[in-house]
Amino acid sequence: MQMGEGGNILMANRAPRQLPPLAPGTCVRVQNQASNVWDHTGLVVEALLHKQYIIRLDSSGRMSLRNRRHLRPTSVPTPPPAQSEAPLPTTQTPTPPPPQPHPKRQVKRPRWLDDYV
């Protein structure tokens, strides 16, 4: 590594980090694209070309296409979806009435237009 101006380390001579491929069925943490926080978890469903992976997200069950650099393997297994043998009893709750529309403002013609027919 070379030292640049002001003591900065130049990384131009370093090779990019090589991340190992992920096998289908691997539990991963997924980086949120908006906030760059690793807050989603999922399961690798399929490995595609060019280091792309199809991930089933645990929170919503959606399928997401992500690059390898946005995935980190985790040792915490994702819980399987809960399957109940007996159907849950359904209780009928009364539906609330629809919301009332806001009253509309009455618009009056200007008085100076009364002369025109």
Measured as a percent range, the helix fraction is under 10%
Distance between the termini: 87 Å
Number of strands: 7
Q: Mean pLDDT, as a whole number?
A: 81
The total of helices stands at: 0
Q: Strand-and-helix sequence, N→C?
A: EEEEEEE
**Biggest sheet record:** 5 strands, antiparallel
CATH architecture classification name of the domain at 20-73: Roll
Q: The CATH topology of the domain at 20-73 is what? A: SH3 type barrels
Q: Uncertain segments of ≥5 residues (pLDDT<50)?
A: none
Strand content: 25-35%
What would you report as the Rg, rounded to the nearest angstrom?
29 Å
CATH C-level label of the domain at 20-73: Mainly Beta
Structural class: mainly beta
Shape verdict: elongated
How are the strands of the biggest sheet laid out side by side?
6-5-4-3-7
Question: Could you explain how this protein is built, in words?
Answer:
Residues 59-117 are annotated as: Disordered. The chain has 117 residues and is mainly beta. It has a domain at 20-73: SH3 type barrels (Roll). Helix content is 0%, strand content 26%. The chain has no helices and 7 strands. The chain has strands spanning 2-3, 9-10, 27-30, 40-47, 52-57, 63-67, 71-73. The protein has a 5-stranded antiparallel beta sheet, with no helix packed on it. A hairpin with a 5-residue loop joins strand 1 (2-3) and strand 2. The protein is elongated, with a radius of gyration of 29 Å. The N and C termini lie far apart (87 Å). The model has no long low-confidence stretch (mean pLDDT 81).
